[in-house]
Amino acid sequence: MKDSFNREIDYVRLSVTDRCDLRCTYCMPATGMRFLKKEAVLSFDEILFLIKTLATQGIKKVKITGGEPLTRNDTVALIKAIKEIKGIEKVTITTNGIQLAKYANALKEAKLDGINISIDTLDPEEFRTITRVGELKRVLSGLEKAVEVGLPNIKVNTVSRGELTEEAIYKIAALAKTNPIHVRFIELMPIGLGKGCPGKTQEDIFSVLESRYGKLDPFEQRLGNGPASYYSLAGFKGKVGFISAIGHCFCAQCDRIRITADGCLKTCLHMDGGCDLKAALQTKDEELLLQQIFSAIQQKPEKHHFLENQGDSRLMSQIGG
């Protein structure tokens, strides 16, 4: 599939739930969240029908997202089933790591191709403040277990919040020094509660890292499905990367679509609304489904409009980050 700007679309980010076991301050309010009812969330069979249909049209890569995908009890089974679909080459997942120690072995057995773990600080008290309910030790145990069982392509994602201190940057980056994992610093996007929150730029983080660890050498190979730019540091087992959608716009290379937990197809993270695929998925109407998908992709914008203060009115957890 190609959009109107001749970009090939071969990657889908699939949210399997809008629920999460954390309440991160830049993502969700402390109270008052209204989650989807069970019947509104895409079922196991609906998801498989969707991915099988997308695979016939050139989708090769699937990222399982949420909310927190491991709060859904059939996520591992979904990964295993999606891996068996003809045409699908890679299935990866993004997680907050709270339940990772419990599921690491099962994810390995399901032949997961990669995992992103969100860690915004290595200070237990600050972690509790950011997440409101989380325990850092559970996430670190999950990361340790992921390395132990040999999950491939492990990445740590850190949101470049304005409060991120130099010492915190050093410590998080050091995870890639002592472990065969990659650490990425992600620019805070103005979506939901993230609007108006101060953030650090890629240049800010870059300068801090070079002051402690020396020159960052560009690493030209791709290390996954996404748009991160990676760098090597002397003595590091893994790489350090940056995902900077606003400061270093990468829309010209965008190859993805998003599916929300209730079956809405979004062609761009910033866009409000989207195409509702739920009816076609419930009835398994492949002709209607393809018609809706093709029509939506032709309306995919050339680039995001965050700088024009536009964006989806929903929270990131409701979109599928």
From TrEMBL:
| Radical SAM core domain segment(s) | 4-227
GO biological process annotation, one example: Mo-molybdopterin cofactor biosynthetic process
The cofactor required is:
[4Fe-4S] cluster
Q: Which reaction does it catalyse?
A: GTP + AH2 + S-adenosyl-L-methionine = (8S)-3',8-cyclo-7,8-dihydroguanosine 5'-triphosphate + 5'-deoxyadenosine + L-methionine + A + H(+)
Q: How does it assemble?
A: Monomer and homodimer.
- SMART domains the UniProt entry points to: Elp3
E.C. number, please?
4.1.99.22
Which top EC class is named for this enzyme in its record? Answer: lyase
| Binding site residues for S-adenosyl-L-methionine | 26, 67, 118, 189
Q: What is this protein called?
A: GTP 3',8-cyclase
Q: Which residues form the signal peptide?
A: none
For this chain's record, the cofactor binding note is: Binds 2 [4Fe-4S] clusters. Binds 1 [4Fe-4S] cluster coordinated with 3 cysteines and an exchangeable S-adenosyl-L-methionine and 1 [4Fe-4S] cluster coordinated with 3 cysteines and the GTP-derived substrate.
User: Can you tell me which family this protein belongs to?
Assistant: Belongs to the radical SAM superfamily. MoaA family.
